Amino acid sequence: YLKVEYLPARQECVEHHIAIYAGIRKEDRQKTVVQTPHPVEVIEKSLAKSSLIACIMNMKYVNAIPLYRMEQEFARNDLVISRANMANWMIYSTEHYFSLMYGLLKSILCKQHVVQADETTCNVVRDDRPAGTKSYMHVYRTNAFQKGRQIVLYKYSPGRGHKVAAEFLEDFHGYLETDAFSGYKALEKEQTQITAAFCWAHARRDFSDALKAVGAKSGVAIPQEGSVAAQALAKIAEIYHLEGLLKDFSPEERLRRRQKEIAPLVEAYFAWVKEQNPLQIGSKKTCDGLAYSLNQEKQLKMFLCDGEIPIDNSASERAIRPFTVGRKNWMMLNTPRGAQSSAILYSIAETAKANNLKPYEYFRFLLDEIAEHLYGREHDPNDRAFLNNLLPWSDKLPDVCKKKI
């Protein structure tokens, strides 16, 4: 029979010896000194090997453990590493290695037909702006229907305006699915190659909040019939039900079924919305829900035009959740440089998870391989073609990077 035994992590000091030989050259009888090649170091003159750096990245960007807690845990195991050193290792590794993979993933993402996006706030301390000024962490990802080759990319920005997305998606031509933030509408007007599609989960949110508010006041459950909010939710639920039956279909078949079965329900929903009189509705949340649907009618109908567009943006909201979990633990980011480093490391971690890889092993593999190609004697440091073999869906990845279950 089998039992599982837990073996706590341990740290080992590895000592490297570089051989140096002195002798006399035969040809000119001159004294000479020859040194054997120095092994490639991920961070030169640092005590950190790739395994330690990858461990810290995995603990922070996958398991949401702040650096100060790692500092304490390492110290309890007789290893003294300051959080400042760990932060510097993260930034150095990002700027020298992971930024190369990030750039390649971005170029691939911008060639997709559909991209989904979302954003959340973050607090960056030393950004030369008044205290409390909001910064943003954006996420861009491949659409939820795509089979394999998933990409999830984070981008730090001090603002939220449409120019942020315009810069990131400069080379993108296709559908961008988001919430109804006005910046995305402005982006569609400015970047004519981008078509905005909006999220039905947001369309139902105000109606759901309206029922919750009434239920909280009355202390009883609200029936699914009667109130305008309940009727709206029932109509949207019917659309979602039929859409859920199409998730495993090809984009072509999904589009055909949508136009045949779902489009009439969507048209009926908007016709019903236009019949409602806000002056006769006492709930502000319900009125907000009706207004949202009316104002975003064109973008909400966009999923009926292409079988690759999901009905909602929930995949992006799930993709940005790991950052929001971590944000609760460390509260703030120290500098814009550190914030962008975090964005890239979250991107590598989430893309690895989306492609069924082990983030720690993938972090370590990328560090070793990219360092070897950049600084190893047998490689051209200007050649970037090797990065294609390191992509998270590459068949050249070692099995140790891949999840077995």
Word description of this protein:
The structure is a single chain. By secondary structure, the chain is α/β, with parallel strands linked by helices. The protein has 13 helices and seven strands. The protein has helices at 50-61, 67-76, 83-109, 162-168, 182-190, 200-218, 228-244, 251-275, 284-295, 297-300, 314-330, 336-354, 359-375; strands at 20-24, 31-35, 114-122, 135-142, 152-157, 174-178, 194-198. The strands form two sheets. Strands 5-4-3-6-7 form a five-stranded mixed β-sheet, sandwiched between helices. Strands 1-2 form a two-stranded antiparallel ribbon. Strand 6, helix 5 and strand 7 (194-198) form a beta-alpha-beta unit. Helix 6 (200-218) packs across helix 7 and helix 6 packs antiparallel against helix 9.
Write a concise keyword list for the protein shown above.
two-stranded antiparallel sheet; 48% helix; alpha/beta; elongated; 405 residues; 13 helices; five-stranded mixed β-sheet
User: How many beta-strand segments?
Assistant: 7
Number of helices: 13
| Rg from alpha-carbon coordinates | 26 Å
- What is the element string, with H for helices and E for strands? EEHHHEEEHEHEHHHHHHHH
Strand order of the largest sheet: 5-4-3-6-7
Low-confidence stretches: 218-224
Concise description?
This protein has about 400 residues and is α/β, with parallel strands linked by helices.
What's the layout of helices and strands?
Layout: E1 20-24, E2 31-35, H1 50-61, H2 67-76, H3 83-109, E3 114-122, E4 135-142, E5 152-157, H4 162-168, E6 174-178, H5 182-190, E7 194-198, H6 200-218, H7 228-244, H8 251-275, H9 284-295, H10 297-300, H11 314-330, H12 336-354, H13 359-375
